[in-house]
């Protein structure tokens, strides 16, 4: 009975079940624990482990800096690289190298670097050598002054040292955005150096917001530390100065007349020119001794403008003064000056902006008063920041150094005036 009750399954049924199981089951690695539950489905929002919360890994840094300016062509702005004697170059570079705080752009200027008529290049007032003037453009002024104040505390007045670098940077930030340290002995000479930011410098070079820095850079200077961004904006500044000067000059003029217009832009509204603190013949003194440097700085820029003829071997310049040619210069003046000019005409004439922009600029360009308007508006731009900086000089230098600096300026004024009186007519 029992043997007949237990019968083996037919062979074809066993084979069919094996085939069905092999087809319907995915291949998987056998688990060591057969009773373990299946793995959960991956979540779209994975939970953060407690160890990650308690000890988080640093996130990758994201740079918010603007991309660096590409390297300029080798010959771009070569007119800005004015030569000086080897001894002067070595002295200027060694002075700038003394500063531990990072300087992005630096130049030297003034009678201590390039000779001026009426001043002895080796001795100045009371037998002292002329003070060397520097301008430093930095990225972070508060940080820069903190480092420099730690390295060179004697460069700063006592109250500036007591109030700290944050006070210095706040005073610097007041228009025109420069802090000066004067009468600083270094490398056997006396120097004065100004500190500004690269952003402030480039803004003035492009827009003529104050003309305090841009006007200084219309004259010959010696670059000690170069920066691609500043070199580019300085080339724009020089071209803008040429356009403004051409709009105030006749059809034919001499290169000396051009250079005096260019050098005089920054002095037009300077309050010191109204006092015995600057030689009133200073512009002529600069140009007479620095004509070769002016020509190197501006010749290629002038001849690159349409309608201007200036052979390299000649000192006379000719330009197209038709309204169309003048309007091309007028439209490309720096934004702050151009706004001042258009506001003047809006307030004092019937000229108004029209739908045809070209016609509006041609009408302005043919106006006989344009040269005087341009000169007056440049004077107005210079006056306020130059006055503020004169007052800031007392704050930065202190009473003692300010009196000494004013005395030196008066001495130079007297020396220059005496020289001009003795000069033949």
From TrEMBL:
Pfam families: Tam41_Mmp37 (PF09139). Its EC number is 2.7.7.41. One of its GO terms (biological process) is cardiolipin biosynthetic process. GO terms for molecular function: phosphatidate cytidylyltransferase activity. It is a peripheral membrane protein. It comes from the Eukaryota. Keywords: Lipid biosynthesis, Lipid metabolism, Magnesium, Membrane, Mitochondrion, Mitochondrion inner membrane, Nucleotidyltransferase, Phospholipid biosynthesis, Phospholipid metabolism, Transferase. The keyword Mitochondrion applies. Pathway: Phospholipid metabolism; CDP-diacylglycerol biosynthesis; CDP-diacylglycerol from sn-glycerol 3-phosphate: step 3/3; Lipid metabolism. Residues 25-71 are annotated as: Disordered. Its cofactor is Mg(2+). Residues 25-34 have a biased composition (Low complexity). This is Phosphatidate cytidylyltransferase, mitochondrial. The lineage of its organism: Eukaryota, Fungi, Dikarya, Basidiomycota, Agaricomycotina.
């Amino acid at each position: 009975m029992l043997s007949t009750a237990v019968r083996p399954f037919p062979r074809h049924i066993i084979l069919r079940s094996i085939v069905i199981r092999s087809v319907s089951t995915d291949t998987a690695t056998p688990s060591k624990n057969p009773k373990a539950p299946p793995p959960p489905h991956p979540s779209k929002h994975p939970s953060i482990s407690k160890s990650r919360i308690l000890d988080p890994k640093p996130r990758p840094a994201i740079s918010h800096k603007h991309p660096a300016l590409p390297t300029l062509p080798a010959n771009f702005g070569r007119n800005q690289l004015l030569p000086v004697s080897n001894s002067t170059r070595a002295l200027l570079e060694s002075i700038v190298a003394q500063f531990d705080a990072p300087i992005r752009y630096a130049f030297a200027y003034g009678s201590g670097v390039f000779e001026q008529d009426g001043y002895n290049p080796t001795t100045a007032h009371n037998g002292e050598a002329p003070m060397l003037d520097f301008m430093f453009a930095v990225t972070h002024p508060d940080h820069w002054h903190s480092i420099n104040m730690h390295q060179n505390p004697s460069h700063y007045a006592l109250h500036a040292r007591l109030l700290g670098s944050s006070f210095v940077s706040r005073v610097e930030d007041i228009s025109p955005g420069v802090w000066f340290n004067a009468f600083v002995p270094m490398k056997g000479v006396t120097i004065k150096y100004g500190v500004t930011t690269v952003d402030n410098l480039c803004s003035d070079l492009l827009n003529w917001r104050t003309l305090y820095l841009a006007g200084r850079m219309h004259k010959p200077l010696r670059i000690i530390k170069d920066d691609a961004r500043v070199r580019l904006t300085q080339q724009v500044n020089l071209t803008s100065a040429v356009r403004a000067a051409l709009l105030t000059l006749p059809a034919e003029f001499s290169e000396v007349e051009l250079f005096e217009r260019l050098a005089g832009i920054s002095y037009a509204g300077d309050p010191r020119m109204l006092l015995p603190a600057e030689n009133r013949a200073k512009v002529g003194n600069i140009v007479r001794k620095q004509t070769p440097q002016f020509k190197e700085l501006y010749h290629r820029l002038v001849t690159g403008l349409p309608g201007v003829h200036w052979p390299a071997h000649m000192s006379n310049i000719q330009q197209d003064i038709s309204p169309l040619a003048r309007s091309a210069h007028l439209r490309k003046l720096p934004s702050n000056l151009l706004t001042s000019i258009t506001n003047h005409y809006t307030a004092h004439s019937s000229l108004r902006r029209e739908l045809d922009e070209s016609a509006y600029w041609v009408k302005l360009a043919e106006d006989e008063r344009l040269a005087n308007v341009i000169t007056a508006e440049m004077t107005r731009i210079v006056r306020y920041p130059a006055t503020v900086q004169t007052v800031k000089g007392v704050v930065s230098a202190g009473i003692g150094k300010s009196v000494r600096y004013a005395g030196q300026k008066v001495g130079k004024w007297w020396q220059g005036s005496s020289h001009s009186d003795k000069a033949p007519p």
